Amino acid sequence: MDAATLVGSAATLCSVTSFVPQAWKVIRTRDTASISKGMYVVTVIGFALWLTYGILLWQWPLIVTNGICLLLSGFILMMKLLPRRKREEVADVLDPTKGESAT
Question: Does 50 score more than 70 pLDDT?
Answer without folding.
Answer: yes
